[in-house]
Every structure is written in C-alpha cells, then in structure tokens.
C-alpha cells in the first residue's frame, strides 16, 4: 500500500503533537467510481494523520487504525447507491473490524454512507432527493452527539457549515427505527434551517450503537482548508474548516487509545 | 470473444471495389457532395469500398475537416508573435494545446461544441459533450481538473426552452458530477435566435508535468494498436456528418439515433486507468474516440506517426454483433480510447486494464507501409493513405460578402429609437430599472443551474460561479493555480462580427485578470450558421480575423478550439457566437480576487471611462432593440487594466474586483453587493462630470475596459498612485457600508439587498421550478 498520490503532496503539519498524530493511519477506500478519495486523504493529512490508500479489491485492511469510505458514484450507482460496492472483498473486512471488540472507527461520507447502510452497519436507507435534482450547497448542521469516534472534537449542539452535494440524499427508515435512533442518541447530525432533500426528522448523519461507525450525507472533507471551503467559495458565513473536526476527532481517539 | 458475423452481410472488399466500379454507393445519404465523392474516387484510383466511404464521409464532414473554415483558421497559426510563443508547449492541431505554467507544470484546456445533439436529445447531448472534451484532455497526458459550460438557449418563456434547459443542465451535472470534476463556471444566455439551435459548449482543463505530455501519433513498426474502454455500439452513427454538419429541417426524420449515449462511470474509470498508464509510461501514443470514432482514431494516429497501420476490424468488441464494418468505423460510442503500445509493455498494459476492469482488444499494429489497412477476417476492406482521410480533405473557399442588411442594422441606434422612449431618469424609475435589469433572463442569478453541479470535488476549487473566473489550484505546495473564463456576446457580434469577436476575447481576458491571474492562452468555440450562406461566411471570416488580430495585441495565443457551423433553422442562422475561453495563471491562488466586497468602510473605485454605448446592450435587449454599433474595443486599454488588476491582486492592494460587461455598472454594483450580502453607498457625480454622461448612461452603458474594485483604506494611496502612474482613469465612486443592507446610489432610490436578491435569484426558479 502506498500513500495516496496527491498532486504536489500535502503541507506538513506543525500542530502540537503532530509527531504522534502522524503515526495514526487512516485508510481511504477507493471503489471504481469513487470521487472524493483524494479529498478525504487530504483532510486526514491536514488533520495531522497519515492517509493510506485502500483498494476495494484488497483482501486485508493492513494495519490501519480507522477507515473512511468517501463519496462518489461507486459502480455508477446504476443499481442503487452503494448496492454493489457493499459486496467488495474489502467491505467484509471492514464490517468484521467495525463489529469486532476493537471497534474500528469507520466514517462513510455520502456514497460511503449509502454503502454503510447497504452493508447493514447503519440502519435505514437513502432515496432520491424529494426535489429530484442533484443539489450542491453549503449546509448548516447541528452536531447532536459529540461522543462518537468522529465527533469528539465538537461540542454537542454545535452548528457547523459544510458542503452537501448529492442526488440520492433523502434519509428514510421506519418510524420504529427512527424512534430508536433518537432514543439512543444515534442521530449524530441534523440539518438546520433547511432540509435539503426531505430526510426524515432532518437527519443528516447517524451512528451505530457503539459510536465507532458514523455515516452522513454532507462532506466534511470539503471544509478542511482555508481558501477552499464554503466561506471562501460562497461566503455565507461560518468558516472554511468546520469539517476538520471529524478528522482530528478520530486521531484524538486513536492516539488517546494508546497508539 | 469471437463474434459470428461472417455471413451476416456481404463484405465489400477492396478487391471487389476494383472489379465493380459502377456499384451505386449511398454517398449523398452520408452527407458527401458529388465533387467530394469524385475526389475520393480520384484519390483511391477506384471507387471506395463501403467501409472506405464511411470513413471519408465522416472525416470529410464539416465537423471533422473544418473544410469551410480552414482557410480562415490559418490566421491563428500565422499571426503569432514571440511573446505568444514563449509559453506554448503544444500548439493548435493536437487534441488540445499545452501551455507552460512553470515549476515543471503544464496545463491543457479546450472548448468544444455539442450543439446539435443537445437540441435533439438534451440530456445525452450535453452529457457526452462533457465526456468528449474530457477525453481530449486525457489524450494529452493530463489529469482533468475542472469543467465549464457556456450555454445559449431560446427565449426563456418559450415552451421548448424548458425541455432543452432541464435536459442539458441535468446532463452536464449527471455526467460531470460523476467524473469528480468541479464545474467552476460558464455562461447562460437566453435569446430566441437560439430557439431551434441551442448552443451547448463544454470546456475542460487538465494539468500534467512536462514530461507527461502525450501526443496522438502511431510510431514504431511492430508496436501494437489497442482499443479500450466501452464496447462499440450503434449509437452516434453519423453524428459528425449527418447531424453536426447540416442544418435542421422539419421535413426530415428525427436524427435522434445519431446522438451518442453516455456512461459517466465508464468514463471515470477510463480517466483513472489512463492516468495509471501514463504514470507507468505504458503508451507511445493515445487518441480518444469522439466524432467519427474508429475512422478518426486510426487515420489520425496513423497519419501523425511515421508509418502506417494495420487493423483487423472483427477484433473490435461490440455491444451489437449485427453492426456492419461501415457502422463500426463510424460509430461514436462514448468512453473509448485507442493507444499504441510497444510489445514489451503489452503485459503491463493489460494488468492496468484488469485492475480497473476495463475491456480492451488488440486490433493490429503499426507498420512502415504508409498505408492504413483495415481488414475484415483477413479480407482488405480499407486501403488508404491515412493523410487523405485525416488531413487532406476538401478545403473550400466559400464565397462571402458583407450582408446587404448590415448597414441598415448598424444605422439603427438605440438612442432615440421607439424602444428608448420613456428612458428612466427619476430616482424611482432608475431603481425600478436596476431591479428589472438584474432580474432579466440574461442577468439573473444562475445558481439554479450551478447548484446542480459539484463545485467542490477535488478540493482545489478556489473560486467558482458567480465570480468572474473559475480558479483551481494546481500545486498544493506552492499554491500555483489557473483561472478560466468564457465569454461571447452574440448581439455584439451580429452588429459587427470583427469587433464583436474581439469583445468576447476582451471580456474573457478581463475576467481572468479581474481574478488576479495573468492571461496566457485562448481556446475558442466558433458557433455560426451555414457556411454556404455568404452572409454567415462573412460573419465567420470577420470573427476569425478579429480574434486573431486581437490575440496579437493582447499577446496570448489560440491553442485550440472548435468550429460549429450549420447552427441554423431553415434560412435563419443564430447570432454569430464566438465563445472565447481565456486561461490565466496565478502564482498563488490564495491571492485570487473575489467579485464582492465585504469589509465596512473600504473604498470603491471605478476603473476606466464610460461612453454612451447602449447599442446591443442588455438594456436595449430588454426593450426589444438590436441595432447600432457594439461598444468600442480598445485592446491596449484592456491590457493596461489587466496589469493594474493583476498587480493590485499580487500586492494586496484590492480585496474585490468585478469586471463591467453586460448590464454595465448597474449590474456590477448589484452583483458585488449580493456576492457577500454587503451593501455600499455610491455617488457617480465625478464620473458624470468627467465622462459627460447622464446617470442612466453611467449605470447601463456597456463601455469596455472597466472594472469596479474594493480598496482597503490602508492601500488607497498606493493603489491610486499606481493607476495615475499608468495613466489609467480611476474614480472613487463610493464606500462599502456593511450595516446598511442596501445599495444606495445617489440619484437612485435606495435598493434593499433583500429585494435585489429576491429579484436576482427568483427568475430561473420561476420559469424552471
């Protein structure tokens, strides 16, 4: 496995504790049709960690400490978003590792979230946006649960602005499941101010019961660098780096666990 | 796999053609003229086989051969100065030109049309337009990094416009979003002249290291020729010849089967697969399959190389086993590439294909015969000199003359016309006029469209719509990046094609400079009516002459582009629409200048002078008038303005800059205010006194060479000193007022930003839902 080939490489981090964080290895999975893998890898690096390339056909996870399943259109999403990707050899390893005692942290973004629901690591499903169009916009989210592996660096109730971009982003589940998610604090993110796709109960992202697996439709990896986030592109307020907390959270978690 | 096609049709071999000279061939149905068919017979010394006829018919089509425009396009290669050559690594003629960015980086970009298919089948037409231009970029060895799409549709309230609009926008989004390429800008113009001939142009830009530049040629005897990507199907047969090279005509059957169908997933995989091939230096030459499919790829690769090529056509993987050899040669099935690979690299090449699960088939090899030989189960069905197919097609000196109506059109100025009656003057009237302007179809917010495109993917987008130019970072370490803008004004070009084309270039140049980037190269998409109409041919000739002259003054070369003719319905052509794309370079994208102001108290300056230039303007257009002379072009002034904007950006003297173009100062002030929702107080008395114009003219004139900039208080002296030293007109016209929530212009009733935004953003949703 090699580092993801980013154009020009990422700047070295001079943040405190950078040396220790760099020892944390975050795998980024690429399926045919994955689009945001380079972005996710950059986010890991900007947060201070080491991004490791994972190929969908790989038989093992190597020694990664966490996994990100990035956005895109795996296999073109021609069948149902994520429905084919879930059968990749690597997904079985990821499912096993996520459910093992070690509780491997897994983050699914957009298509990655869809793949996680198809894999039954997370409940519910995504259907076409209620307005039937692809929508790219900067979205305000409220962090409802700051105890998951991917949200510990946020405060509960904190509002963040990160880009959203999808065609099939409407989260649905039966009422019983939704009630259970709410009761167990597994609704991790909720859309604030505007529900961009008709998702049930304004749900933008959820977690599994242990909190190591998180999936959401919006894209934190597009809000990690000054000059390239929502504030610079669209100027609607907030900052360019509201998404960085996802990646620092998991690094904090990994390093805190004695890596 | 093997396909049993042997006995499904009679194969017209070269041997058979020689023996049966009098066999009737359907050359007219394939779009060839009598003289062209006669020429083919002369070149071959016999009648062509069915397969040869198919190849010549597509490659000699207007779309592929540029036969009507070639004599004029030469000027782009002739009017070149040393200044223009200094950063050009690959010029016109390859799939796309390549420009040196420094630090070992190179950039390639190109704009192309996909007009006719987008009218017949908007979704697929627009989608495959993106696909085709992206493959052109990959063919140069580059990683594509962004796309843009200039669009021109019919009247906003015509029922058919919604069909084209929904389809084309969804197609561009559906395809482009799936490729992981940010869409960083474009244009949207509504005008009834495009009702039956919408313009869907697509631009792609890619970056590479110098050593990765690849060219489309087949060299080295014994090297293998491979076709990979999607299978060949029956879609897009005759797309270039019968669809893109003829005018639409109600009496003929629908041409829908001539439109290609796209598979963006296959394209995305193809991109990554090609990049891996380049990384391993596994291909000697590469060519995408677009218009004219295998005919084009084999003949161009062979004629650009040093020998010939031998290909067995039954080796082509098919979606439909009933396709005839001619159909296989003409098919424009998407997501296919052809490459030349040395025997030593065959195994490594196959490993990359297998990794990405891309299908491929080895078709033949490079020879030293100088001939392109295509066989069908061993029988020779094509035996031609590839140059006669790819490069030595017919060239026409089409007659052209200044139209008889041109003088009358130019004499019909807006000022004093019936449509000019009741020109707004009172504060309330002017406020109403400004609001009406920014809500008009051409000036309204395009976010309904751009919200359907991914502008974030890749993480390198530094600026996108609605700023003046799209900006993407190339190098993460240094911040090196490129800026791109496309522009055209069909009304200006209709009034005066020579100067109209120059105005398109001037605006794109200005947009790029406004972002802070140094303009470096030009790509153009020349959308015109039928070249067989001397009026249209004159428009085309004048536009090319104007553009090539202007490039010399601005010092930037045309590195590629395309010509789209026959954009007319019956005898009515579209406005001549040369869409010009300019690419610029930013040493550090962090220095890019956005189009809106934010900081309270900053000074607002107007750069340039304003004349009474309302002919062809958006205001005249809204009043239903088109006549007179377009705004005056002063390319030296554009250069001077550009240098000021670039220096000011580099030295941190300005925080915002917005160019003045369609809609004039009124549009620019509203857009700069709405960009971040920050108001301003404006007083134009100094401008009125200096330039001798009234307030209405100051707001709505479309004089060129102007921009509005926001200058921090601490930089004001430095900035004005620079303008003075360069002798460039600059006037302080106001101040940013962050708390007000209004745009106040002396003499105009105060405009609340909320109301302006509602007007500006409400138009497209109102018509398109």
Q: Describe it for me?
A:
The complex is a heterodimer of chains A (259) and B (769). Chain A is an alpha/beta fold. Chain A has seven helices and eleven strands. The N terminus of chain A is likely disordered. By secondary structure, chain B is of the alpha+beta class. Chain B has a seven-stranded mixed sheet with strand order 8-10-7-11-9-12-13. In chain B, helix 9 links the parallel strand 4 and strand 5. The longest helix of chain B is centred in the first third of the chain and has 21 residues. At the A-B interface, helix 2 and strand 6 of A face helix 9, helix 11 and strand 14 of B.
Question: Gist?
Answer:
Chain A has 259 residues and is of the alpha/beta class.
Output the number of helix runs of chain A: 7
> Strand portion of chain B, in percent?
15-25%
**N-to-C series of helices and strands of chain A:** HEHEEHEHEEEEHEEEHH
In total, how many beta strands of chain B? 28
What percent of the residues of chain A sit in helical stretches (DSSP H or I)? 10-25%
Question: Overall pLDDT of chain B, averaged?
Answer: 93
Poorly predicted segments of chain B = 1-6
Number of beta-strand segments of chain A: 11
Shape assignment of chain B: globular
Radius of gyration of chain A: 17 Å
Q: Biggest sheet of chain B: strands side by side, in what order?
A: 8-10-7-11-9-12-13
Topology:
The complex is a heterodimer of chains A (259) and B (769).
Chain A: H1 18-22, E1 25-30, H2 37-47, E2 50-55, E3 66-69, H3 89-99, E4 106-109, H4 111-118, E5 125-127, E6 135-143, E7 159-166, E8 170-172, H5 175-183, E9 187-191, E10 203-207, E11 213-216, H6 230-233, H7 244-256
Parallel strand pairs in A: 1-2, 1-3, 3-4, 4-11
Antiparallel strand pairs in A: 5-8, 6-7, 6-9, 9-10, 10-11
Helix pairs in contact in A: 2-7
Chain B: H1 14-19, H2 34-44, H3 50-59, H4 62-65, H5 70-78, H6 82-85, E1 88-90, E2 97-102, E3 105-113, H7 115-120, H8 122-139, E4 143-153, H9 159-179, E5 183-190, E6 199-209, E7 224-229, H10 239-243, H11 264-279, E8 285-288, H12 293-304, E9 308-312, H13 325-330, E10 336-341, H14 346-355, E11 360-367, E12 372-376, E13 379-384, H15 386-390, H16 406-411, H17 427-439, H18 447-450, E14 461-463, E15 470-473, E16 481-487, H19 490-495, H20 497-514, E17 518-527, H21 534-554, E18 558-564, E19 568-569, E20 572-573, E21 577-586, E22 603-607, H22 618-622, H23 635-650, E23 656-659, H24 664-676, E24 679-682, H25 685-691, H26 695-700, E25 707-711, H27 716-725, E26 730-737, E27 742-745, E28 748-752, H28 753-768
Parallel strand pairs in B: 4-5, 9-12, 17-18, 24-27
Antiparallel strand pairs in B: 1-2, 2-3, 3-6, 4-6, 7-10, 7-11, 8-10, 9-11, 12-13, 14-15, 15-16, 16-21, 17-21, 19-20, 22-25, 22-26, 23-25, 24-26, 27-28
Helix pairs in contact in B: 5-21, 8-9, 8-11, 9-11, 17-28, 20-21, 20-23
């Amino acid at each position: 496995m090699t580092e993801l080939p980013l154009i020009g490489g990422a700047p070295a981090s001079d943040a405190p504790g950078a040396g220790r964080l760099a020892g944390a290895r975050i795998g980024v999975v690429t399926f045919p049709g994955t689009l945001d893998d380079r972005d996710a890898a950059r986010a890991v690096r900007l947060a201070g960690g080491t991004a490791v390339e994972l190929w969908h056909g790989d038989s093992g996870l190597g020694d990664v400490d966490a996994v990100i399943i990035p956005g895109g259109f795996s296999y073109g999403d021609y069948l149902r978003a994520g429905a084919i990707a879930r059968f990749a050899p690597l997904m079985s390893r990821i499912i096993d590792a996520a459910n093992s005692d070690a509780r491997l942290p897994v983050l699914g973004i957009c298509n990655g979230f869809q793949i996680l629901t198809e894999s039954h690591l997370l409940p519910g499903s995504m259907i076409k946006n209620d307005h039937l169009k692809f929508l790219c916009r900067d979205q305000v989210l409220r962090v409802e649960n700051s105890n998951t592996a991917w949200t510990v660096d946020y405060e509960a109730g904190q509002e963040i602005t990160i880009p959203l971009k999808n065609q099939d982003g409407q989260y649905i589940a039966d009422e019983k499941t939704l009630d259970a998610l709410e009761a167990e604090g597994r609704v991790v993110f909720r859309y604030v101010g505007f529900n961009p796709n008709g998702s049930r109960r304004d749900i933008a992202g959820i977690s599994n019961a242990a909190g190591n697996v998180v999936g959401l439709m919006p894209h934190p990896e597009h809000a990690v660098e000054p000059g390239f986030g929502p504030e610079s592109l669209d100027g609607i307020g907030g900052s360019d780096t509201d998404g960085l907390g996802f990646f620092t959270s998991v690094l904090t978690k990994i390093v805190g666990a004695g890596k | 796999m093997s396909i049993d096609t042997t006995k499904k049709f009679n194969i017209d071999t070269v041997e058979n053609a020689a023996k049966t000279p009098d066999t009737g061939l359907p050359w007219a149905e394939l779009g060839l003229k009598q003289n062209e068919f006669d020429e083919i017979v002369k070149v071959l010394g016999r009648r062509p086989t069915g397969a040869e006829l198919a190849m010549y018919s597509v490659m000699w089509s207007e779309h592929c051969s540029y036969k009507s425009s070639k004599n004029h396009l030469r000027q782009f290669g002739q009017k070149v100065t040393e200044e223009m050559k200094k950063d050009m690594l690959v010029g016109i003629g390859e799939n796309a030109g390549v420009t040196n960015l420094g630090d070992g980086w190179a950039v390639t970009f190109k704009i192309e049309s996909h007009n006719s298919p987008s009218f017949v089948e908007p979704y697929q037409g627009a989608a495959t337009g993106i696909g085709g231009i992206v493959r052109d970029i990959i063919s140069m060895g580059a990683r594509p990094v962004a796309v843009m799409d200039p669009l021109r549709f019919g009247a906003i309230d015509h029922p058919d416009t919604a069909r084209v609009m929904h389809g084309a926008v969804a197609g561009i989004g559906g395809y482009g979003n799936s490729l992981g390429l940010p869409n960083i800008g474009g244009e949207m113009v509504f005008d009834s002249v495009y009702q039956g001939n919408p313009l869907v142009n697509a631009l792609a830009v890619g970056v590479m290291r110098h050593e990765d530049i690849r060219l489309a040629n087949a060299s080295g005897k014994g090297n293998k020729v491979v076709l990979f990507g999607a299978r060949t199907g029956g879609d897009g047969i005759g797309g270039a010849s019968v669809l893109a090279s003829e005018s639409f005509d109600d009496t003929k059957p629908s041409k829908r089967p001539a439109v290609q169908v796209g598979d963006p997933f296959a394209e995305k995989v193809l991109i990554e697969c090609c990049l891996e091939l380049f990384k391993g230096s596994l291909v000697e030459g590469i060519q995408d399959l677009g218009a004219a499919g295998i005919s084009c790829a084999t003949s161009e690769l062979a004629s650009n190389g040093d020998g010939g090529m031998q290909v067995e056509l039954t080796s082509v993987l098919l979606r439909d086993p009933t396709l005839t050899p001619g159909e296989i040669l003409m098919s424009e099935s998407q997501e296919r590439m052809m490459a030349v690979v040395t025997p030593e690299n065959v195994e490594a090449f196959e490993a990359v294909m297998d990794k990405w699960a891309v299908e491929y088939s080895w078709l033949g090899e490079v020879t030293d015969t100088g001939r392109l030989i295509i066989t069908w189960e061993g029988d020779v069905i094509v035996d031609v000199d590839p140059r006669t197919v790819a490069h030595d097609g017919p060239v026409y000196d089409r007659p052209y003359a200044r139209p008889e109506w041109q003088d009358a059109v130019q004499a019909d100025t807006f000022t004093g016309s019936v449509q000019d009656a009741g020109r707004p003057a009172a504060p309330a009237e002017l406020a109403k006029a400004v609001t009406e302007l920014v809500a008009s179809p051409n000036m309204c917010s395009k976010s309904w469209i751009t919200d359907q495109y991914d502008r974030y993917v890749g993480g390198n987008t530094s600026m996108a719509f609605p700023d003046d130019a799209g900006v993407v970072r190339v190098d993460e370490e240094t911040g090196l990046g490129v800026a791109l803008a496309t522009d055209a004004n069909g009304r200006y070009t209709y009034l005066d094609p020579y100067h109209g084309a120059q105005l398109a270039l001037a605006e794109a140049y200005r947009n790029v400079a406004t972002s802070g980037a140094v303009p470096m190269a030009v790509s153009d998409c020349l959308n015109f009516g039928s070249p067989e109409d001397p009026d249209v041919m004159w428009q085309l000739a004048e536009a090319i002459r104007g553009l090539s002259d202007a490039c010399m003054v601005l010092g930037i070369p045309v590195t590629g582009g395309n010509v789209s003719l026959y954009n007319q319905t019956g005898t009515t052509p579209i406005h001549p629409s040369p869409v010009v794309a300019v690419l610029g370079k930013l040493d550090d994208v962090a220095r890019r200048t956005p189009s809106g102001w934010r900081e309270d108290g900053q000074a607002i300056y107007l750069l340039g002078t304003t004349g009474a230039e309302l002919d062809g303007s958006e205001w005249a257009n809204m009043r239903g008038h088109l006549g007179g002379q377009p705004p005056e072009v002063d390319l030296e002034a554009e250069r001077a303005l550009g240098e000021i904007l670039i220096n000011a950006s580099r030295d941190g003297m300005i925080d915002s800059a917005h160019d003045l173009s369609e809609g004039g100062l009124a549009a620019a002030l509203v857009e700069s205010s709405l960009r971040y929702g920050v108001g301003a107080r404006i007083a134009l008395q100094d401008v009125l006194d200096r330039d001798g114009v009234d307030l209405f003219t100051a707001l709505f004139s479309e004089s060129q060479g102007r921009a509005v900039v926001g200058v921090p208080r601490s930089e004001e002296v430095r900035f004005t000193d620079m303008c003075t030293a360069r002798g460039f007109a600059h006037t302080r016209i106001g101040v940013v007022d962050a708390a007000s929530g209004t745009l106040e212009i002396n003499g105009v009733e105060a405009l609340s930003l909320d109301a302006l935004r509602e007007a500006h953003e409400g138009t497209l949703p109102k018509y398109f839902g």
